[in-house]
Amino acid sequence: MPTNDLAGRTVFVTGATSGIGRATVHALAAREATVIIGARSDDKARALVEELRRQYPRAPSSVVAIDLASLASVRRAADIVLALGPPLDVLINNAGRAGRSGTTPDGFELTIGTNHVGPFLLTELLLPKLRESAQGRIVNVASRAHMGVKRLDWGALARPPAIKGGYSAYALSKLMNVLHAKELARRLADTRITTYALHPGVVASDIWRELPRLVQWVMMRFMITNEEGARTSLYCATAPELSTTSGRYYDTCREVQPSALARDESLARELYTRTDAAIQSVTPHH
After folding, report:
1. How far apart are the first and last CA of the chain?
2. Closest residue by Cα to residue 84 from 137, 132, 134, 15
3. Considering 170, 196, 235, 249, which one is annotated as catalytic?
4. Which domains does the chain have, with CATH numbers?
5. Cα separation, 37 vs 16, whole angstroms
6. How many Å apart are CA 66 and CA 181, to the nearest integer?
7. What is the pLDDT of residues 223-264, one digit of tens each?
8. Which residues contact 57 (CB under 8 A, 6 or more apart)?
């Protein structure tokens, strides 16, 4: 049953042209939110905007080009969002990658750089815009994969990285997403901004595109749809009952306990400080 309960609220979703992000954007537009689509591909993003305008003519949508692997791209995208008129009500850090090795243009391990460092900087830069909202929210799409991490290897933030890519880097990046939301909640305790981390479910989305085709095919048979995967993101982004709750972790639209590491306050604090320092060590080049 479509409703217009989000009319007048602005939501920025990264990784919005495929998978969970795309399903999230459709669900937000159906409720007449103003949606900012963060995407690497201009063509895909423009096609999505056309689709949204046809299906939900009362929901304004726009595109901001962003590649979370590039800090320069993140800064440019943030500048565009900061220049927009209305406050930013919700930031959904949804974009992610898994399975591919390499380094970002700034020298970070590719998965850590895309899933944690880029979203961390984007969130920091957009805080002034979120502060303008009556109730700003930051939603980090993490994963149950974080539970498999036994220790946080700080070599993951080194340039060049002291860890290899692959599934272990993905799991580590998702632990970082949960810790990031936790520490932000502490830092923003005296503001009207709340934070959330979540496991979307094991979703048949584009994030697995780097894996071999046969492995993808077998995995997809046991996965949920993107629409089902978007439900917890939407719950954290919009549920009125969560307006005073911050820094918690959710799975299937309810609060659950993350791993012991993810609950470690001193670790969350140290991750924030180290990530900030790692970003400062990269010379900003516009």
Report:
1. 45
2. 132
3. 170
4. 10-278 (3.40.50.720)
5. 6
6. 21
7. 657 677 789 999 999 999 999 999 999 999 999 999 999 999
8. none
- Is there a catalytic annotation at residue 170? yes
Phi, psi of 131 (to 5 degrees): -65, -25
Q: Identify the band that residue 286 occupies on the pLDDT scale cut at 50, 70 and 90.
A: very low
Answer for the pair 111, 98: CB distance below 8 angstroms, yes or no. Answer: yes
Looking up tokens 């320069």, which residue turns up?
72
- CA 95/CA 93 separation, integer angstroms: 6
CA angle 51, 55, 61 (to 5 degrees): 60
The pTM of this model reads 0.92
Give 189-213 pLDDT, tens digit per residue: 999 999 999 998 765 555 556 667 7
Length of the chain equals: 286
With H, G, I as helix, E, B as strand and everything else as coil, classify residue 11.
strand
Tokens of 9: 């609220």
CA distances (Å), origin 41, targets 14, 99, 167: 12, 20, 25
Say if CB 164 and CB 123 are below 8 A apart. Answer: no
- Strand ranges inside 40-184, DSSP E: 61-65, 90-93, 136-141
